[in-house]
Amino acid sequence: MAGGTHIFDMIKRLRENENLRKKNYFKSKNTYSEKPGPIHDDFTASGTKREQIRREIKMERARGIRKSIFVFVLSMVLTGVLIVLGFWLLKLIL
């Protein structure tokens, strides 16, 4: 019977789809009785502290950019070396 497995697969798929419809993905087990309220920030910073935070953020962003450029250049060099080695090995084989 060539079509037997196809029919069983269809039945299995229909059952799985029905099970998916029964699940409620939008209910979470961790429900809280508290109602969300306004957020009160007690943090106030002076002008010098804000400037220091801005400088730190800029430095961190620059470090991240330099790191990603370094990884990109390193991957390009490694890819080039692998291509050259591949051609060299191909030349040796042929």
Major beta-sheet overview: none
End-to-end gap? 49 Å
- Given as residue ranges, the uncertain stretches (5+ residues, pLDDT < 50) are none
Sheet-strand content, in percent, reads: under 5%
Number of strands: 0
- Class based on secondary structure composition and strand pairing: mainly alpha
Topology order in helix (H) and strand (E) letters: HH
Radius of gyration: 30 Å
Shape: flat
Q: Average pLDDT value?
A: 82
* Helix percentage range: over 70%
Descriptive overview:
With 94 residues, the protein is mostly helical. Helix content is 70%, strand content 0%. The protein is built from two helices and no strands. It has helices at 4-22, 47-93. 0% of the residues are buried.
Entry summary:
The protein is mainly α and 94 residues long.
Spell out the key features of this protein.
94 residues, mainly alpha, 2 helices, 0% strand, flat
